[in-house]
Specification:
5-stranded mixed β-sheet; 5 strands; 111 residues
Amino acid sequence: MTPVAANNEQLPSLSGGLYAFFFDVDGTLAAIQSRPDEAFIPEPVRQTLQSLYTLSNGALALVSGRPIHELDMLAAPLRAPAAGVHGAERRGADGELHRVSLPASMGQELS
């Protein structure tokens, strides 16, 4: 069954592998707050994300400068693929977490 939009138009199927959704969190899904720990994704937005994740067979990812564990808390109960710490952390559709790490010598050179 194809979902129906508010104006009774049929929406395209999201499960055909033609669409993927990437959402920035701060300033897009969650309003910018004066303190980052005060940010939240409103419940209706989280419900819509969960529906879109289901309709697209998981072709949805969250993107942020925040660590992935913070994205999980903000989007709970959704646990979607994600890119955190500006791409230094990534969780794929298989749930596997990948982290970029620099050699210790490079960190010393940058200091």
